[in-house]
Amino acid sequence: MQNQDYIKDWVKIRNNRVFHCGSLLFENKEADLNKFLKCVYSELNLDYPKFHKMDGLSKLGILASEILFTSNSFSEETALIFSNKSSSLEADRQFQASTESFASPALFVYTLPNIVLGEISIKFNLKGENAFFVSEKFDTELITDYTSALLKEEKAPQAVCGWLNLQNDEYDVFLCLISSRGKTLFSEENLEHLYYFE
Amino acid sequence: MRHLYLLDDAIISPLGFTTSENLKAVRQGISGIQPYTFSGIKTYAGFISNKKIDAGFYEIAAPEKYTKLEKMLILAIQQVLDKNPGLDRASIPLILSTTKGNIDLLDNLGNFPKNRIYLGKLAQTLSDFFGFKQKPMVVSNACISGGLALSITKRLMITGKFKNAIVCAGDLLSNFVLTGFNSFQALSKNPCKPFSENRDGINLGEAATAILVSSEKPKTKSVSLIGEASANDANHISGPSKTGEGLFKSITSIVQKTGISPENIGFLSAHGTATLYNDEMETVAFDRAKLNTVPINSFKGIYGHTLGASALIESILSKYSLLNSELYATVNFDKTGVSKPLNITSEYAKKELSYVLKTASGFGGCNLALMFKKNLV
Amino acid sequence: MTNLHTELKKSIIEQLNLEDMQVEDIASDEPLFGDGLGLDSIDALELIVLLEKDYGIKLTDPTQGREIFTSVNRMAEFIEENRTK
Questions:
Q1: Which residue positions in chain B have pLDDT lower than 70?
Q2: B42 touches chain C (CB under 8 A)
Q3: May I ask the CATH class of domain B222-375?
Q4: What pLDDT, in 10s, does the model give residues A80-94?
Q5: What is the pLDDT at residue C1?
Q6: pLDDT of residue C20
Q7: Contact B249 A127 (CB under 8 A)
Q8: Which residues of chain C register pLDDT less than 50?
Q9: Residue-level pLDDT at C35
Q10: Cβ separation of A122 and B235 shorter than 8 Å?
């Protein structure tokens, strides 16, 4: 019999709200992105000074993963399969602006979308498979197919996959923990449903 | 064991616009790297002039309608399609690897619409040009992207949704990336010297490449990807790991899964960027994996670092190394400058090969290892 | 503590995003890297930018930074000797 994978847990950060498995965890009217992210950081009782050095995309990724990884046990081999539309465009523009005077190495290092995977790996000591995909909109088919293939081929015991986009201070985060146990079957339809409707 | 067969390919680089021109230069140890100055800063880099690209592109379409990178990628894909007229464009997926895409548009859009900066839009532009009907996929995972795109394609074959795919990769030599690596004090003022004692940084380069891959074994002698693994160092987002952890883990994982032991690996195409820390990190990982006697090369002295294209170009060259029983030189390598004994190739040589290992590492702590096998008819 | 020391600490905190830290939290003789402030290689590169931007000092040899960025005291000393603005 074929092993089934499940969406065990999920987090959404959208419009100044943080959702955990569909229920509102935190809300804040702060219009400034960095201030909002700092509020979430405080709300989660994080003490991780490196956080303040990160770009917005990495901050969003760290906050969403923090919720997933503190509520679930996880293996060092957990795979990270993320996707978005804007790649690292926000950091790209900031670095580009810095080059007008003095190019900032601390900004340059964030001009790749997969840096957030590195930041999450460092924070949670994950040494598994990583992949960052870019698509015009959330490609649930690709993310489901690739994540399932990794799990099926035993390249990873579980995975965190989803969408993590940031552009012009507008963000859309949807990360799921995929595991052999859970209630919601891991399928393209269910992933899409959770992303668009829950 | 599932195979991903590497079929027809094309490489667009300063060395030439076909794979055979590239191979000829690689065999002779000719470098495409030239002195290059940007914002008053002197370095060496691999650069292709717009004039040369447009001269090649003119026969295909109007050059002003496409960005430099798009033209390079189209030139590469076109060659692959020309060699395979029977391919069904409705069903074949396109997988693009790039780190920065059309990054040159960021400070100068020219006549292009704003959305052309998106990597997804870049892939869609290529797809539309050729009339592909499947949604294109884009992999952007720093300097392992080109090889990771092959891994991902192999793994996606498990879905049974496609048997053939076109994997392409490209990145530009841009002021953006040059300025960034300069702020990292990582650019060499000289031709880069991978694994050498007096290496002092990287050269950047631009290139595009495309390859047809298939899950079906061709009727001729062939090369296939038989094992692939990637791992994160979980150490630092830009500084290479002192223990080479992720790279070591990637290598041991495919050695275990494929059962190919170090003594059967005939050639290792390393990342070899020629920074002090990268080459040392690789050395530690190779030493831990007991690869000390395997002939190891870096192509960075020939191409410079072509970012998202590098690991795919180097995989394609690994394919030819297997098919033609040959080892390529590490151009500019002189006296070894790493902490463990390694067998760095200094010149071109003939050698019968069965398996070739390709590795790459990148920012974000990512590492990749690919195992290629020669298949007789 | 001279004005330069205070000024340096302020710009280190700002430039390196050392959130929640105050000037008083950085001792002038405290190591900036390793066990001290815990700065890393990217911070070192940012400090090189800081030297150029604020004091007109261009470090051409990246390894030079290791010796200069040992503490605020050493940085201040180096700046006094080499500043062009």
A1: none
A2: no
A3: alpha beta
A4: 999 999 999 999 999
A5: 66
A6: 81
A7: yes
A8: none
A9: 73
A10: yes
Which residue pairs, CB below 8 angstroms and at least 24 apart, start in C52-61? C52/A102, C53/A101, C53/A102, C54/C11, C54/C85, C55/C79, C55/C82, C55/C83, C55/C84, C55/C85, C56/C83, C56/C84, C56/C85, C57/C82, C57/C83, C57/C84
Residue among A52, A101, A106 whose CB faces C46 most closely: A106
In this predicted structure, what is the pLDDT of residue C63?
A: 77
Q: How far apart are the C-alpha atoms of B182 and B177, rounded to whole Å?
A: 8
Contact B151, B224 (CB under 8 A): no
- Pair A161, A143: CB distance under 8 Å: yes
Residue B99 confidence (pLDDT): 98
Q: Which of C23, C26, B237, C20 is CA-nearest to residue A42?
A: C20
Write out chain B residues lying below 8 Å of A122, CB-based.
Answer: 234-237, 365
C-alpha A178/C-alpha A63 separation (Å) is 18
How big, in percent rounded to 5, are the helix, strand and coil portions of chain B? Answer: 35, 25, 40
In angstroms, the separation between the Cα of residue C73 and the nearest Cα of chain A is 24
Note whether B4-214 and B222-375 share their fold.
yes
DSSP string, B334-346: -SB-SSS--EE--
Hey, are the CB atoms on B236 and A126 less than 8 Å from each other? no
Domain range list for chain B: 4-214, 222-375
Chains that contact B by 3+ CB pairs under 8 Å? A, C
pLDDT tens profile A101-148: 999 999 999 999 999 999 999 999 999 999 999 999 999 999 999 999
CATH 1.10.510.10, applies to A6-196: no
Of the candidates B293, B295, B296, the one whose C-alpha atom is nearest the C-alpha of residue B282 is: B296
CB A24 within 8 A of CB A46: no
Q: Can you tell me the distance from the alpha carbon of B278 to that of B192, in angstroms, rounded to the nearest whole number?
A: 13
Give Cα A35 distance to the centre of its chain: 19
Q: Are B251 and B283 in contact (CB under 8 A)?
A: no
- Cβ pair B121:A104 closer than 8 A: no
Would you tell me which CATH number, out of the four given (3.30.70.580, 3.80.10.10, 3.30.460.80, 3.40.47.10), belongs to the domain B4-214? Answer: 3.40.47.10
Chains that touch C (3 or more CB pairs under 8 A): A, B
Residue A1 has pLDDT above 60, yes or no: no
- Would you kindly state where each structural domain of chain A is located, as residue ranges? 6-196
CA–CA separation, A133 and B156 (whole Å): 13
CA C9, C10, C16, C18 torsion-angle sign: positive
pTM above 0.95, yes or no: yes
pLDDT score at A2: 55
The count of CB pairs under 8 A between chains A and C is: 29
Q: Using one digit for the tens of pLDDT, what is the confidence trace for B176-235?
A: 999 999 999 999 999 999 999 999 999 999 999 999 999 999 999 999 999 999 999 999
Token pair, residue B223, equals: 């090369």
